[in-house]
């Protein structure tokens, strides 16, 4: 496969197959069965990537990949952090990298090329049909078939020309001729689209539906505004990403794309979309109108692979990567704001990597723990849909839910240590949001650090000294192990 372009999904599939991280599933149905098999796999002790082929109603070779980033090995390969890393190893290897990548992105602008494998098939006008691909209906109450889960939607800032790559759910519309894009207001992609509407009355868009999951990870994570996710991907790779510039939109399409589209959004072209089983674990919000992409050109490789990343009650397809990425980015953001004493951050998978964040600190001054809590809750990388931030001392592992809850239970006085922020950045996806209410939420900062003024006299933890425990284990280990 030496001729494969950078960020080819086929190359990734070949790699993870060699690493024993892939299973093949033949003969499943696109209607619910692929989604259910994938869901069973996420809940397994060692979740595998699944490559679905011979999908009922479709030609052999038209494939769907799920679970692409659901293990330490696959996520580490995706982020080019190395091979053979475990969960802790990935986190350790990632520490500090997001801010380095963001800073280096400007050195890796996209590299335009004239052709790509997706030119094998170019479809226009009435021949466009997204249902020529085995697009799954992922969950029973979904409002339709969602082609965009692991996708990368490329927009641009009309003033600066900087590209943005975001991952937003996309439901097939108009019998396959079009697809809605459900970017939430405030997301960089949504802001770009609004600016184009104000300036030109329409917004150009390109989309890739199958690529190396690095683009899913970066498109689906809060990369800082003004930084192109494609350039950021170049910084991760140490090499600019080859792209074909869309002839009509002038926007890039990654040369490694399996299926790609080019088209326009206009403010009045909307279709009802949803509901969709979401990362909170709920179907929240009623079906509502979303911008509908008029596809002017559709491209695909022979026997293309669609990259699927359906959310749902955690753990779901991308909850592991979201947790690892968010945790690293939040820690990085706090450090780069100049906050001292940050020991670790963890955006728990059970809160979809957004709702419940724990940060551990070495307390340095009165007010330090509250400062960390407030900043975390409003950091651009964490602000959307956060609900709880818990700040703990550095003897607590923020990724260990049991320890975090123990600290909350024993080091807080709820009357004093829970601070509430109101009218913060919520979402229509919030199952707590009243119908038709504006998508605000509130959030709690729980200061579960020992009170600063009693830090040195606070009750001692009833456990043995670790060095003593080690020596006891040496002496008594054989008895304990039976
Ligand atoms: C599989 C997947 C689906 C997502 N669906 C949506 C969506 O429908 N709408 C949305 O606004 N964000 C969605 N997100 C989250 C965004 O991708 C994420 O917030 C990203 O940082 C947005 O990028 P932007 O701020 O550059 O626009 C999804 C993420 C993933 C990984």
Please tell me about this protein's structure:
The chain is an alpha+beta fold and 482 residues long. Among the domains are: 91-307, Roll (Pnp Oxidase, Chain A), CATH 2.30.110; 337-454, UbiD C-terminal domain-like (3-Layer(aba) Sandwich), CATH 3.40.1670.10. The protein is built from 13 helices and 22 strands. It has helices at 9-18, 33-42, 72-78, 87-94, 97-104, 188-200, 214-219, 229-237, 319-336, 368-378, 401-410, 414-417, 466-480, and strands spanning 22-26, 49-53, 63-66, 111-112, 121-124, 146-148, 152-156, 163-166, 170-173, 178-181, 203-208, 242-245, 252-254, 259-265, 270-273, 288-300, 305-307, 342-347, 356-361, 388-393, 418-425, 440-448. The strands form 4 sheets. Strands 5, 6, 7, 8, 9, 10, 11, 14, 15 and 16 form a 10-stranded antiparallel β-sheet that branches. A 5-stranded mixed β-sheet has the order 18-19-20-22-21, with helices on both faces. Strand 18 (342-347) and strand 19 (356-361) form a beta hairpin. The model has no long low-confidence stretch (mean pLDDT 96). Flavin mononucleotide binds at residues 149-150, 164, 166-169, 182-184, 187-189, 219-222, 309, 318.
């Amino acid at each position: 496969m030496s001729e494969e372009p950078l960020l080819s999904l086929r190359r990734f599939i070949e790699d993870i197959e060699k690493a024993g991280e892939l299973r093949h599933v033949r003969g499943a149905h696109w209607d619910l069965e692929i989604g259910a098999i994938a869901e069973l796999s996420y809940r397994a002790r060692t979740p595998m990537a699944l490559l679905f082929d011979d999908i009922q109603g479709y030609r052999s070779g038209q494939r769907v990949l799920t679970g692409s980033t659901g293990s330490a090995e696959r996520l580490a390969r995706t982020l080019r952090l190395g091979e053979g890393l475990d969960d802790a190893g990935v986190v350790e290897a990632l520490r500090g990298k997001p801010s380095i990548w963001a800073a280096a992105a400007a050195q890796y602008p996209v590299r335009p090329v004239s052709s790509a494998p997706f030119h094998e098939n170019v479809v226009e006008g009435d021949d466009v049909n997204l249902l020529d691909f085995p697009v799954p209906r992922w969950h029973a109450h979904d409002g339709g078939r969602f082609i965009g889960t692991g996708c990368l939607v490329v927009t641009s800032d009309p003033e600066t020309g900087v590209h943005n790559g975001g991952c937003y759910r996309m439901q097939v519309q108009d019998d396959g001729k079009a697809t809605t894009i459900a970017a939430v207001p405030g997301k960089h992609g949504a802001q770009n689209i609004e600016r184009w509407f104000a300036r030109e009355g329409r917004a150009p868009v390109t989309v890739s539906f199958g690529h190396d999951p690095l683009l899913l990870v970066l498109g689906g994570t809060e990369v800082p505004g003004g930084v192109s996710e494609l350039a950021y991907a170049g910084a991760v790779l140490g090499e600019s990403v080859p792209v074909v510039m869309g002839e009509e939109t002038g926007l890039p399409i990654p040369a490694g794309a399996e299926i790609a589209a080019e088209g326009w959004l206009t403010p009045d072209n909307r279709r009802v979309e949803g509901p969709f089983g979401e990362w909170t674990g709920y179907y929240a919000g009623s079906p509502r109108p979303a911008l509908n992409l008029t596809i002017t050109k559709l491209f695909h490789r022979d026997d293309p692979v669609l990259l699927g990343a359906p959310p749902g009650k955690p753990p779901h397809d991308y909850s592991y990567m979201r947790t690892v990425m968010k945790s690293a980015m939040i820690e990085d953001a706090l450090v780069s704001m100049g906050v001292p004493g940050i020991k670790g951050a963890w955006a728990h998978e059970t809160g979809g990597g957004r709702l419940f964040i724990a940060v551990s600190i070495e307390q340095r001054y009165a007010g330090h723990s509250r400062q960390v809590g407030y900043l975390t809750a409003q950091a651009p990388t964490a602000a959307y849909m956060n609900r709880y931030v818990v700040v703990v001392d550095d003897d607590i592992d923020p990724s260990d839910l049991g320890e975090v809850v123990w600290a909350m239970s024993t080091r807080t006085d709820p009357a004093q240590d829970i601070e509430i922020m109101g009218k913060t950045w919520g979402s229509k996806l919030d199952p707590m949001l009243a119908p038709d209410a504006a998508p605000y939420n509130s959030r709690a900062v729980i200061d579960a650090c020992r009170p600063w003024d009693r830090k040195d006299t606070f009750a001692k933890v009833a456990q043995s000294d670790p060095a003593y425990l080690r020596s006891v284990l040496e002496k008594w280990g054989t008895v304990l192990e039976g």
